Structure to design on (491 residues):
């Protein structure tokens, strides 16, 4: 609660009106009111009903309390940030698979559980680490299940340079991957056992980390080597996977964020629910309900009644949540949110123009993403990414997408040069055979295919680049990993 503050503190002036109902009630209930001087004194005492105690729940008290609560709600109390629409709201996860020779009997069962885990997370970013006597990052967090499947099939004990069960080394490698991701992630060790000799090193690796650690036990143990990590036993159904997903989400949601560029989440609408119990007594007989003093939590559609109480941005947010991105874009006054709506509606030109109105690192990064969605839009996107990096040098997503844009531009220029050379050669040697090589540079559709599963706010992952590289140099994924791990294990 140290982050508690008010987004619209001037609404607290409404508290000055809170005592007004009590003052009016006091005047109204003064002894005899205005009847003295009209009714004879010896008759007035007989006419007034003063027997019994006065009700403790009076309309004036309720009205004063409602005004006070309403003032606080309108002031916009906030203590949490709301996450960027271009950042996934699912917890990042890194799975460390035990490839020791002792784990070989349970290896296929562990791989099946990893596939179930990736499927249950529905496209959330998942990374992969392999460990035995050493630990190696196989694949950075990605949302492409096919890429994970490619590398998962290639993992076997023979690709590891040294045998062992170094859970501490796996934790250190996984935490380096997770530290490069926003928010709090979760490390999942998939192993049949963790020896107790790893306990001290594992505790040291996890000390001070914002990330959580869990163990998916594919064997009977022991698991004394992972102090502080929750151990979830493998089940024949998906109950174990569901528990892991739920615990990762809880950890992600509960972890605080330290990004100062994120918007504050207005808690006023939730506090307005306190008005409900204060309004219910007005339905009692004799309370004289003068007006409806609370608003419905949601209107069925943003019609005239909703417009009375919601700003255009609030109405647009409601429409955006319901899938009407085009309608939301017409209502948003905030250029960043208008850019988000136009992006989701497929109007990338309009989205880029909206993001250009804000000179912040995030807005320029989002502008670059929108420009990249156009055919051959990299020439315009690169300056946007450059501006984002100028405003925020430690912006890995902007740097990654800038490298992608430069690579696409270089590929296009090389293809253009090759095509021009081929045309010149054909003019000089018109009879040199009928074989022709298609050097047509990639069009808009090919450009989209070259960037699989591209999501705004995420650069091309290292794993995807590795997959593209393997396709160029040839060889099997298992041989590729064996050579890479051996090179990394060299002192």
């Amino acid at each position: 609660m140290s982050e508690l503050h008010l987004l619209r503190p001037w609404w607290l002036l409404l508290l000055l009106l809170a005592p007004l109902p009590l003052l009016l009630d006091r005047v109204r209930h003064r002894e005899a009111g205005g009847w003295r001087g009209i009714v004879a004194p010896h008759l007035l005492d007989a006419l007034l009903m003063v027997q019994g105690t006065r009700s403790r729940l009076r309309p004036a008290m309720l009205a004063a309390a409602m005004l006070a609560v309403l003032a606080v709600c309108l002031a916009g109390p906030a203590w949490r940030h709301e996450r960027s629409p271009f950042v996934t709201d699912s917890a990042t996860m890194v799975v460390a698979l035990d490839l020791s020779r002792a784990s070989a009997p349970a290896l296929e069962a562990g791989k099946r559980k990893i596939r179930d885990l990736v499927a249950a997370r529905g496209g959330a970013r998942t990374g992969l680490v392999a460990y035995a006597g050493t630990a190696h990052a196989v694949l950075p967090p990605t949302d492409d299940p096919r890429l994970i499947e490619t590398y998962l099939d290639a993992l076997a004990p023979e690709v590891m340079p040294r045998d062992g069960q170094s859970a501490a080394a796996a934790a250190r490698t996984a935490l380096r991957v997770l530290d490069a991701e926003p928010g709090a992630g979760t490390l999942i060790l998939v192993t049949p056992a963790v020896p107790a000799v790893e306990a001290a090193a594992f505790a040291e690796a996890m000390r001070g980390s914002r990330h959580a650690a869990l163990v998916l036990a594919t064997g009977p143990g022991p698991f004394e080597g992972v102090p502080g990590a929750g151990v979830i036993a493998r089940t024949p159904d998906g109950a174990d996977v569901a528990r892991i997903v739920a615990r990762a989400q809880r950890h992600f949601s509960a972890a605080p964020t330290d990004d100062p560029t994120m918007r504050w989440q207005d808690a006023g609408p939730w506090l307005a629910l306190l008005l409900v119990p204060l309004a219910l007594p007005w339905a009692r007989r004799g309370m004289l309900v003068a007006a409806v003093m609370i608003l419905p939590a949601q209107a069925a559609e943003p019609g005239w009644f909703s417009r009375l109480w919601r700003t255009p941005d609030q109405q647009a947010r409601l429409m955006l949540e319901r899938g009407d991105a085009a309608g939301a874009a017409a209502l948003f006054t905030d250029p960043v949110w208008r850019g988000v709506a136009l992006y989701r509606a497929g109007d990338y030109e309009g989205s880029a123009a909206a993001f250009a109105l804000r000179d912040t690192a995030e807005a320029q990064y989002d502008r670059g993403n929108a420009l990249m969605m156009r055919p051959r839009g990299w020439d315009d996107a690169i300056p946007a990414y450059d501006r984002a990096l100028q405003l925020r040098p430690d912006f890995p997503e902007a740097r990654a997408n800038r490298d992608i844009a430069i690579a696409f531009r270089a590929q296009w220029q090389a293809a253009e040069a090759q095509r021009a050379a081929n045309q010149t050669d054909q003019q000089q040697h018109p009879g040199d055979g009928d074989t022709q090589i298609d050097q047509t540079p990639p069009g808009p559709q090919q450009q989209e295919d070259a960037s699989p599963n591209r999501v705004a706010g995420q650069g091309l992952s290292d794993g995807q680049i590795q997959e593209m590289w393997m396709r160029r140099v040839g060889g099997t994924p298992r041989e590729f990993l064996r050579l890479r791990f051996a090179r990394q294990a060299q002192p």
In short: Strands lie at 5-6, 77-78, 93-98, 126-131, 135-142, 186-191, 212-217, 230-233.
